[in-house]
């Protein structure tokens, strides 16, 4: 990877690049060696936590306007380097470059959005009582740990780090071991923009060792985590002794319910986009399409035609729509569900026939399964690849039952022109976010997060500050109210 001169991804602790023991990182497209990555020990985590603790003393009181301007400068740096970030992200993750360009710009948007919120981050409520004026202040919780997954690491890192910095917290970031490149790039850009050393530190390594040390560290006050539901359980256990505050964005198996009265053409576009973009490695993907029986055959036929034409190939090629999966192990996992689905009696309805020649990497050919029952494993388990399952329903009640018949509750999508049905369904579906007649279109002030096994807490707007800040109540007596006298006689 001489073009970008990445030979080794290092830790960045207290503003210094540090390495030690390393492990190898490979390109999902052709399995070639990409770079060595530093493997953080518990000592490295401790040094990073100490650096974050020291920097917190000044960062929490960093002048508001200077902090806001610094976050704007980081956004500017990201924009200036967006093309390079997109290329690095695409090589490291296998995500098609057409989506990664937008993901890099979304990273800049995240910093700009939270820069605007710096000015009001500390503001609370005024709660006057009869004899006291109560008011609340918000104060940063302290150094926090941020642990991110491999699917869209740059965007997700900015989504966590920007609000933490706006709140006045300092950060120790543990990126995913399978795609660590852009986390280093982001931290270097933040320092180029003028971020003081120690405010953001990166320690690379594996979850079970480096990540665990971060969760257990007594000076780290909270863990913001994005990843699998079972890892969330581990993190909760690891953080129990130090009473860590946790924020979890976990797995999903999101329903998209299509009623017969829907705009079918737009619904097909949205279903295909939300399942097959980002290689299907997307927490909010519409993994289960639940279609009214009267249009079931026609809808599947339309989906099948589109799936057959999905362009699979080198993620760096601008025309590519689906790239390779992140790793050999993940490819094996996703592939195993084809056999599982057929064994359960579902029908392999379509497969892409638009696959580039001579692909040697972790490529999985996108599929659509129809005649799926809700109880089947392919309908219940998070596959996290370009793998769509289609289920039929008769009535509104049955559609809702199938949508909620799952351990997850991140997002739900609904297609209907009936406004009463839309409101009723949206209220009753167990999901943190519902889109009606739309794909996932993010608006940064709105709450992002899941119910059930899909998460704890919400991100976005002021919701992020509920996690990164403590709310303190201050009560001021407004006169000489009665104070009980004890031991006075
Ligand atoms: P993962 O849980 O395997 O790993 C995520 C991160 O956790 C990595 O950095 C990993 O090293 C670390 N980790 C693993 N074990 C740990 C431990 N015991 N202690 C501390 N850290 C540990 O997830 P993944 O496979 O990288 O990512 C895919 C998952 O992420 C999917 O389930 C997907 O749905 C989820 N995801 C959720 C959202 C959301 O917003 N809800 C967004 C993106 C991805």
Automatic annotation (TrEMBL):
PROSITE patterns: ALDEHYDE_DEHYDR_GLU (PS00687)
Record family assignment: Belongs to the aldehyde dehydrogenase family.
Record: active site: 249
Residues covered by the Aldehyde dehydrogenase domain: 21-474
TM annotation in the entry: none
Protein name stated in the entry: Aldehyde dehydrogenase
An MF annotation (GO) of this entry: 5-carboxymethyl-2-hydroxymuconic-semialdehyde dehydrogenase activity
Matches recorded under Pfam families: Aldedh (PF00171)
GO biological process per UniProt: 4-hydroxyphenylacetate catabolic process
PANTHER family: 2-AMINOMUCONIC SEMIALDEHYDE DEHYDROGENASE (PTHR43720:SF2)
The keyword Oxidoreductase is annotated on this UniProt entry: yes
Keywords, alphabetical: NAD, Oxidoreductase
Taxonomy of the source species: Bacteria, Pseudomonadati, Planctomycetota, Candidatus Uabimicrobiia, Candidatus Uabimicrobiales
UniProt cross-references to SUPFAM superfamilies, sorted A to Z: ALDH-like (SSF53720)
């Amino acid at each position: 990877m001489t073009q970008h001169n990445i030979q080794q991804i290092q830790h960045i602790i207290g503003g210094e690049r540090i390495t030690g023991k390393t492990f190898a990182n490979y390109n999902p497209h052709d399995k070639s060696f990409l770079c060595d990555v530093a493997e953080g020990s518990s000592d490295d985590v401790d040094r990073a936590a100490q650096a974050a603790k020291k920097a917190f003393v000044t960062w929490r009181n960093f002048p508001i306007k200077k902090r806001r301007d610094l976050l704007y400068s980081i956004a500017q740096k990201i924009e200036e380097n967006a093309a390079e970030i997109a290329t690095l992200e695409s090589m490291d993750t296998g995500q098609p470059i057409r989506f990664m360009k937008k993901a890099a710009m979304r990273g800049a948007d995240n910093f700009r959005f939270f820069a605007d919120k710096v000015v009001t981050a500390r503001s609370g409520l005024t709660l006057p009582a009869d004899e006291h004026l109560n008011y609340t202040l918000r104060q940063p919780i302290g150094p926090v740990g941020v642990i991110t997954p491999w699917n869209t690491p740059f965007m997700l890192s900015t989504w966590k780090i920007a609000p933490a910095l706006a709140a006045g917290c300092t950060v120790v970031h543990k990126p995913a071991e399978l795609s660590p490149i852009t986390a280093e790039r982001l931290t270097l850009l933040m320092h180029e923009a003028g971020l003081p050393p120690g405010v953001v530190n990166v320690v690379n390594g594996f979850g079970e060792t480096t990540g665990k040390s971060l969760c257990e560290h007594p000076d780290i006050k909270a863990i913001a985590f994005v990843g699998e539901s079972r890892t969330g359980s581990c993190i909760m256990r690891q953080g129990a002794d130090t009473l860590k505050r946790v924020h979890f964005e976990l797995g999903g198996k999101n329903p998209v319910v299509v009623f017969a009265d829907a705009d079918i053409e737009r619904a097909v576009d949205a279903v295909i986009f939300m399942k097959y973009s980002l290689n299907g490695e997307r927490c909010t993907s519409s993994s289960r399409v639940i279609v009214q029986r009267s249009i079931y055959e026609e809808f599947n036929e339309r989906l099948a035609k589109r799936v057959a034409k999905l362009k699979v190939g080198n993620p760096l090629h601008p025309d590519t729509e689906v790239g390779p999966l992140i790793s050999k192990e993940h490819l094996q996992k996703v592939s195993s569900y084809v056999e599982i689905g057929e064994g359960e009696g579902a029908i392999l309805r379509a497969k892409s026939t638009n696959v580039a020649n001579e692909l040697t990497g972790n490529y999985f050919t996108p599929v659509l399964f129809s005649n799926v029952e809700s109880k089947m494993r392919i309908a219940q388990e998070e596959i996290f690849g370009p793998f769509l399952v289609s289920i039929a329903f008769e009535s509104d009640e049955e559609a809702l039952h199938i949508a909620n018949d799952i351990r997850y509750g991140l997002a739900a999508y609904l297609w209907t022109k009936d406004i009463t049905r839309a409101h009723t369904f949206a209220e009753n579906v167990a999901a943190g976010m519902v889109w009606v007649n739309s794909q996932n279109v993010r608006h940064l002030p709105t709450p992002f997060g899941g119910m059930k096994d899909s998460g704890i807490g919400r991100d976005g707007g002021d919701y992020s500050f509920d996690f990164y800040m403590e709310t303190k109540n201050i009560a001021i007596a407004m006169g000489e109210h009665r104070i009980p006298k004890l031991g006075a006689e």
